[in-house]
Amino acid sequence: MSEPEPIIEARGLTRHYRRPRRSLLRPGRAVPALRDVSFTIHSGQRFGIVGESGSGKSTLIRLLAALDRPTSGTVTFAGREIHGVPERQLGFLRRDLQVVFQDPTGSLDPRMRVRDIVCEPLVAHGHPDRAGRLAELLAAVGLPEDTARSYPHQLSGGQRQRVSIARALAPEPRVLVADEAVSALDVSVRAQILNLLADLVERYSLTLVFVSHDLSVVRHVCDTVAVLHAGELVELGPVDRVYRSPRHDYTRELIAAVPTVRSALTRFSREEPQQ
Ligand SMILES: Nc1ncnc2c1ncn2[C@@H]1O[C@H](COP(=O)(O)OP(=O)(O)O)[C@@H](O)[C@H]1O
Ligand SMILES: [Mg+2]
Questions:
Q1: Hey, which of 13, 16, 37, 58 would you mutate to test ligand 1's pocket, going by the most ligand atoms within 8 Å of its Cβ?
Q2: Neighbours of 16 (CB within 10 A)
Q3: I want to staple 48 with a disulfide (CB 3.0 to 4.6 A). Which of 15, 124, 141, 225 is the partner?
């Protein structure tokens, strides 16, 4: 078997955001949301990115998807630079990398029916058999055929996320990115969508980039994990190794933060007011 090829290479990725002028805290100062982050994702990998809220995960995803530009650093996709090139040269990326976001209500146009939402990328790429492909995609994500006529608000949260996934799969991407894609869902629905993602990755030989604030979820889905803390990559390795013997204090904290009944009780008793 040949070595899996690198598909995404991030080198020295840094992104500063400027604080709004009105801010009382050092007005206008540039705040680093991401600092000197480098890693390689190989074809077929299930690559997790974990870190608490505000650690820079979505900033990183926007840079990998060329939805935003780095302050410094580079990203290549299948060996091609994606920053500092005109949008019209990014057709390969717009097709080969698809992102599913946390909140499908925000990313699905409420005035469009499911069939148009899912087929939109097919129209853009001139697909010869849209109806056939639509039926195939709905079946792949476990939605009944008549969902095609529904509007997003007529569906449950889990169904809406299935629609987002069907839309993401429509252009036959090589890489599927899920940014907190299950975080807004109820526990039982979350498990169903996680299993669906795992099945689809297997079935279509996708590379998965899976972003979550919850390491236990990442462990369930990914083979490799990158841990972000305050915009820095503090740990990177096989997910089982990282889980069993974390090298960074922050990773240990994330593991300890897994909400078991016991830790919830401990936290509760710690929050009791001091007598
Ligand atoms: N468009 C933006 N303008 C200013 N600051 C931002 C912007 N997007 C994110 N940030 C800041 O960058 C940091 C990282 O945010 P984000 O990448 O969204 O983290 P995460 O996805 O891990 O929760 C946070 O401090 C956030 O407030
Ligand atoms: Mg985020």
A1: 58
A2: 16
A3: 225
**Using an 8 Å Cβ cutoff, are 169 and 176 in contact?**
yes
Quick one: average pLDDT of 228-245? 96
Considering every ligand atom, which ligand is closest to the CA of 57? Answer: 1
Atom of ligand 1 nearest to the CA of 55: 22
Residue 48: CA count within 13 A, CB half-sphere: 26
Residue ranges lining ligand 1, Cβ < 6 Å: 17, 33, 51, 53-59
Whole-number pLDDT of residue 25: 61
- What's the gap in Å between 53 CA and the centre of ligand 1? 9
Which whole number is the average pLDDT over 201-205? 97
| Separation CA 140–CA 138 (nearest Å) | 5
Domain boundaries, the chain: 6-265
On the question of pLDDT at 23 being above 80, the answer is: no
Fold that domain 6-265 belongs to in CATH: Rossmann fold (3.40.50)
Nearest CA to ligand 1 atom 16: 56
Residues 6+ apart with CB under 8 A from 58: 179, 180, 211
Given a contact cutoff of 8 angstroms between Cβ atoms, the answer to whether 97 and 64 are in contact is: yes
Please, are residues 86 and 80 in contact by the beta-carbon 8 Å criterion? no
